[in-house]
Amino acid sequence: xxxxxxxxxxxxxxxxxxxxxxxxxxxxxxxxxxxxxxxxxxxxxxxxxxxxxxxxxxxxxxxxxxxxxxxxxxxxxxxxxxxxxxxxxxxxx
Length: 93
Fold this sequence. Notes:
Blueprint: E1 2-9, H1 15-32, E2 36-44, E3 47-54, H2 57-64, H3 67-76, E4 85-90
Antiparallel strand pairs: 1-3, 1-4, 2-3
Helix pairs in contact: 1-3
């Protein structure tokens, strides 16, 4: 299993629009991606965090190639205050 943590800072006043698109993405991923065991959105202040867990690299690659992920990124990127910080981790236990 591979864990992914994607931290995103959202521009002030853009939170509601960001959440609308991000929640739709979370719904699609959890509904359609068998290789994704966990995909949720969390928030602290102006920082949002996608916490994700995949069965392997192929599942991560497939996730990034989905139509709905591409559409979400097109909608979300203009709302960000900075570039996303995405880190991946190997499962230990």
